[in-house]
Amino acid sequence: MHYVSSKSILSKNNGMNLYRGCTHGCIYCDSRSEVYGMDHKFEDIEVKENALELLKKELIKRPKAMIGTGAMTDPYVPLEKHLKYLRRSLELIYKYGFGFTCITKSDLILRDLDLLKKINSKSKAVVQMTLTTSDDDLCSLLEPNVCNTSRRIEVLEILRDEEIPTVVWLCPILPYINDNEENINFLLDSCIEADVKGILCFGMGLTLRKGNRQYFYEKLDENFPGLKERYIKEYADSYSIPSPNSDKLMRLFERRTSENNILNTPNEIFEYLQDFPQNSYQTKLI
Questions:
Q1: d(CA 27, CA 150)
Q2: Which helix (H) or strand (E) holds 87?
Q3: Would you say 131 and 190 are in contact if contact means Cβ atoms under 8 Å apart?
Q4: Which terminus has fewer CB within 10 Å in the chain: N or C?
Q5: Residues ≥6 apart with Cβ < 8 Å to 42
Q6: For residue 73, which of 105, 97, 100, 41 has the smallest C-alpha distance?
Q7: C-beta of residue 4 within 8 angstroms of C-beta of residue 52
Q8: Class of residue 278 by CB neighbours under 10 A (exposed 0-12, middle 13-18, buried 19+)
Q9: Residue 36 and residue 29: Cα distance in Å, rounded?
C-alpha cells in the first residue's frame, strides 16, 4: 500500500476510485492490463489520501446523482476494513443526498449495511455483485483472496431481505473452465432466489490484452495444466475470447432472465443504475 495525493475524485459521470490496484487475486482481472497505465505493482494498492476532502467538495457543488465505484478496483479490498475510506465516503454521500452503487465480490459490504439502508431510504442504493462459478473450490482458484460464491449468494439474500436492490455481473465465463449449462443454471437459480433486479452478461467468455493475458496464462499453467496452449492455439492474441458454448449459454441466459422478469441487457441495466430518483427524499417524507 502507498499513498498519493489526487487532483480529483469523481469522473464526469460520477464514478469514483478510492484505490488503484487490488489484492483479491482474480486470475482474469482486466484491470491488470497495461492500457490503464498503472505505474506500480498491481497488489501495491494506491490510496488517494485526500479522497474524502475532494469528495466533500465535489458533492457540495454537483447536482444530485448516483455515485458509482468498483469499475476498476473493488472498493472492498481487505485494507478498506481498516482504512474505512469507503465507509466515510458513504457517510458523505448520505449527508449530501446522493445515491450510491458499487461493484464488489466481498462480504465486507455488509459492514456498511446501515449506511446503505439510510441512503436507500433517502434516495437509492444498489449493490452489484460478481458471480462466476457455482463451485466454491473452483472459485478459490479463480478468485483466491475474496469470499467464495456461496458467501456472495448469502450476501445477496441478506440485501434482498433488507430491501437493498442488487445487480449481478455474470462474468467472466472462462472457456473450458466454467462455461457449462450446469454452472449457468445454478447461478441463475441463485439470482432468481435472491430476487436480483438485473444480471449483466456481455456474452459467455472473457477479454485478454497485454498485461492481464500474461498473468492469466501464468495462473492457467499453475491450476489448469495444458489449457494455456489450447487458448493460444484457438484465440492467439485476440482481445475477445468467446466460449465455444456462447450461443447456447446466451440463449439459456436470455430465456431464464426474461421468464423471471430480470433485466438482462447492459443498456437497460446501466440506465437503471444511473437513474437518480428525483425528489425521492421529499416524496418519501410526505
A1: 19
A2: helix 85-95
A3: yes
A4: C
A5: 21, 22, 29, 31, 32
A6: 105
A7: no
A8: exposed
A9: 12
Closest CA to 158 of 185, 179, 127, 184: 127
- pLDDT tens digits, 226-252: 999 999 999 999 999 999 999 999 999
H/E segment holding residue 220: helix 212-223
- Other beta carbons within 10 Å of 11: 11
Q: Is the pLDDT of residue 219 over 70?
A: yes
CA atoms within 13 A on the CB side of 283: 8
For residue 205, the SS3 value is: strand
Pair 242, 204: CB distance under 8 Å: yes
Query: Cα–Cα distance between 79 and 279 in angstroms, integer?
Result: 36
Give Cβ neighbours of residue 69 (< 8 Å, ≥ 6 apart). 15, 16, 17, 18, 75, 86, 89, 101, 102, 103
CA distance 266 to 263: 9
- Residue 74: which residues within 8 A CB-CB, separation 6 or more? 22, 24, 103, 104, 105, 106, 146
In this structure, the number of other CB atoms found within 10 A of the CB of residue 40 comes to: 12
Strands 198-200 and 205-207: unpaired
Q: What is the pLDDT of residue 278?
A: 82
Q: Do residues 66 and 274 make contact, with C-beta atoms less than 8 angstroms apart?
A: yes
| Cα–Cα dist 13/10, whole Å | 8
